[in-house]
Design brief:
The protein has a single domain, classed as Nitrilase/N-carbamoyl-D-aminoacid amidohydrolase (4-Layer Sandwich), CATH 3.60.110.10. The protein is 26% helix and 26% strand. It contains seven helices and 14 strands. The chain has a six-stranded mixed beta sheet with strand order 5-4-3-2-1-14. A six-stranded mixed beta sheet has the order 6-7-8-9-12-13, with helices on one face. α1 runs parallel beside α3 (62-74). It is globular, with a radius of gyration of 18 Å.
Amino acid sequence: MRASLLQIDVDLNEPADARRARVADLVRAQHASDLVVLPELWPLGGFAYDEWSPGAETLDGPTAEIMSEAARSAGVWLHAGSIVERDPDGPLYNTSLLFSPSGELTHTYRKIHRFGFDSGEAAAMGPGTEIAVAATEFGTLGLATCYDLRFPELFRTLLDAGAEIFVVPAAWPARRREHWTLLARARAVEEQAFVLACNTAGSHSGVPQAGHSLVVDPWGEVLAEAGAGEEVLTVEFDPGAVARTRADFPVLRDRLMGIAVPRY
């Protein structure tokens, strides 16, 4: 399969509608790909807290509308990164959108682990409560977002739900770039799965972004990695490598389930 990760430079001086139109053009240009992935919160900025509430939108809002058309025009599966979702009956959510090649919004994922330690995203957003996996013609996708990458139990749960390819949009800061690469590789090795990790470039509200989107195979090898700036990272890989890796090195069958916790 062929996947394209669009590492978008989120310049907050660029109006959100202009950025949506520009990104839609980039998606349409990836018509030779099977899957296109966008970063986390690219319409407003991952650290632009003041923009979140006024710029929040519903699942049929402007980002979903233009991304649906772009997916349909390109004929690709499109993970459109995430938006600030306004639930009419609840709080804001950091919500990922997955569109089929026909432009149908097939899956959403509300980010479970919110970053900020009681401030920032953790204070402004509600937590998601459900995992999301999506069956496609090239394998089952497991959806996670940015800070989720630090929580292996989520990826193990996605694995148990059938995930073979993890798609992880992010707005990961430059100061923790080494963690970004290390954790993406670790999740691939642990679950013997592909990891497609798509980050932002530029700077959000004074927070420089790490860039360096990457695709990791089930052995933890980095198949492709972007630089620091805006870039389209395209890679071809064989999804069948997941089954072969799990058969050749069957570590997952040795998992200990239901371990008793000793009492002292």
